[in-house]
Amino acid sequence: MNVRCSYCRHSFNLRRDFLAYAIAQASEKGQKHYAVECVNCRKMLKVSVREMRRYVPAETPETRETAQAAAEVAE
Ligand SMILES: [Zn+2]
């Protein structure tokens, strides 16, 4: 997921495993946003959890098979 810093305009990518972790943390605390540190200026950016969920599909056997199939094709 690509995030653009609203302070320095630097854009960077959040890995899917990071997103999954952030979603778990935020939902545990009942938060709708998760604070991500800008890799460039180190300011905290609020990223919408709902937005992050779009990049991390719920773990179901179906999605896992799709991911596996995609990985096999890549090899
Ligand atoms: Zn920044």
Which molecules are bound besides the chains?
zinc ion
Structural class: alpha+beta
SSE series = EEHEEHH
Q: Percent of residues in beta strands? A: 15-25%
Cα end-to-end separation: 23 Å
CA-atom Rg in angstroms: 14 Å
| Fraction of residues in H or I helices | 40-55%
Main beta-sheet strand count, sense and barrel state:
2 strands, antiparallel
**Average pLDDT value?**
87
How many discrete structural domains?
1
Side by side, the strands of the main sheet go 1-2
Q: Stretches where pLDDT falls below 50 for ≥5 residues?
A: none
**Shape, per Cα inertia axes:** flat
Tally of DSSP helical segments: 3
Using DSSP, what is the number of strands?
Answer: 4
How would you summarize what this structure contains?
By secondary structure, the chain is of the alpha+beta class. It has three helices and four strands; from the N terminus they run ββαββαα. Strands 1-2 form a two-stranded antiparallel sheet. Strands 3-4 form a two-stranded antiparallel sheet.
Question: What report would you give on this structure?
Answer:
- Helices cover 44% and strands 21% of the residues.
- It has 75 residues and is α+β, with helices and mostly antiparallel strands.
- A two-stranded antiparallel sheet has the order 1-2.
- It binds zinc ion.
- The site of zinc ion has 8 residues, from loops.
Topology:
Blueprint: E1 2-4, E2 11-13, H1 16-29, E3 33-37, E4 44-48, H2 49-53, H3 61-74
Antiparallel strand pairs: 1-2, 3-4
The structure holds zinc ion (ZN).
Zinc ion binds at residues 5, 7-8, 10, 38, 40-41, 43.
